[in-house]
Amino acid sequence: MDCMKAVIIGAVLSVAAAERRFPAGFKFGTATASYQYDKGESIWDRFVHSRPEAISDRSTGDVACDSYNLWREDIQLLEDLNVDFYRFSIAWPRVLPTGFPNRVSEDGARYYGDLIDGLLARGIEPVVTLYHWDLPQPLQDLGGWANPLISEWFADYARVVYDLYGDRVKTWVTINEPTVICDIGYDGLVAPGLESEGRGSYLCTKHVLLAHAKAYRLYETEFKPKHQGQVSLTNQLMWFEPETEAEAELTELVKALSIDRYCHPIFSGAGGWPPALERHVAEKSAAEGEPRSRLPPFTGEELHLLRGSYDYLGLNHYTTRTVRRAAAGEAVGTYLFDGFRELGVALGARPEWPATMSHWFMVHPEGFRALLSYVKRQYGDVPVFILENGLSDAGTDLDDQPRVDYYRNYLEQVLLAIEQDGVNVVGYTAWSLLDNFEWMDGYQSRFGLHHVDFSSPLRTRTARRSARYYAALARTKDIHAEYEFHKMAAEL
Ligand code: PNW
Hints:
Blueprint: H1 3-16, E1 27-31, H2 34-37, H3 43-50, H4 67-80, E2 85-89, H5 92-95, H6 106-121, E3 125-131, H7 137-141, H8 150-165, E4 171-176, H9 178-184, H10 199-227, E5 230-236, E6 239-242, H11 248-267, H12 275-287, H13 300-306, E7 313-316, E8 320-325, E9 339-340, E10 345-348, H14 366-379, E11 384-388, H15 401-419, E12 425-431, E13 450-452, E14 461-463, H16 465-476, H17 479-491
Parallel strand pairs: 1-2, 1-12, 2-3, 3-4, 4-5, 5-7, 6-8, 7-11, 11-12
Antiparallel strand pairs: 8-10, 9-10, 13-14
Helix pairs in contact: 1-17, 4-6, 8-10, 9-10, 14-15, 15-16, 15-17, 16-17
This protein binds 4-nitrophenyl beta-D-glucopyranoside.
């Protein structure tokens, strides 16, 4: 396309298409996670090496994107994307090889320090996740997230990291996606890959939440007065629609299980488990002959510790599912949310929602606005920080127009939630900066704004069309004109 044509099209479009611009202070970023990029002695190392069949292409994250060595290149890509911030995670076992603070790895501490300094030197704010699924294996050997002591161990680890980087990192994410850690890790097929008939996942939920709360309170009392940073956790929240009106009530219970279980104890005024869920699990446990509810209660002290342990509400969103009652004898598991055994529900999708490379993921932008509005109805005017959103594909095409469409359409729903529903959304994070080790899908499912050549020792990164769109978006904060412009340019 010649230059003149581009100028004319740009001019025409800026008149034809109304601007759809995010507020001036709104921040754009992108994200990665340590195991998907680095190497560490963690439950994921154990899992992929001992159960290779659990990963669809039998690959591992041993080297992954090799960001351990190539982080300077990553920073250049981030600068080219014009992002305000970069979300990455610290590998607990890289900083504390035993899992405990008796030994701090000098090499690990230096690595993250260099990365943080490198980002700040280019004006990119680090947003740091303390736990993105790579638990030190020695802690798993002691029961992992099913052991109540883990909330102390996590706070010990958090203290080391706050001490190391608290002067430079102002936004912390304690835990990424308790639902995946607990519901899938303790009753399905991500590390540690346990099957505990619903017991482990609820124990884990309680202890993950308490770990978050202890790390939050530690920061609040010892670090916030000096550094004035903000801390929360991020939850992976799907949206749910009843398959038919008959399932409306059941769908509310699914939301209590899947959304509010992780939010109510922290963000509600009353604190504690969502009451409808607490009742349901207690009744069901009793009916099944259990001596106590599988959902462990909070003591008054725990409830108090958790309630209000946030500075923002972190939210990862990808997809929407329909809800129906499972047929008698129908197998429903928790494996990547095919269904919830607890409630006897099966999850589905409407035929018009496009499929992606992830079997759990169908595209339905309107669900994002509905979810954001629900969060506001439930938890009030809390600042909502979107910490993940993006699309998976087979990754073969650098011209990834469907990913551009996905970002544009999902962001439009975010704008509507801000403008029409008054949701206080403060920032947005594209998942992901690079193609990476996509957990059970290995390297077959790609989320990157940049393609990564995993067959090359150089792990060459190449910008996709979506990277150019996102760079324009992060600069102008306007989803509409840039999107139309790029689409038009593609057609020439
Ligand atoms: C998140 N679901 O995982 C993780 O935080 C990332 O590490 C991951 O790469 C990304 O999303 C894409 O998968 C999810 O079943 C796992 O809805 C499962 C679901 C959603 C997100």
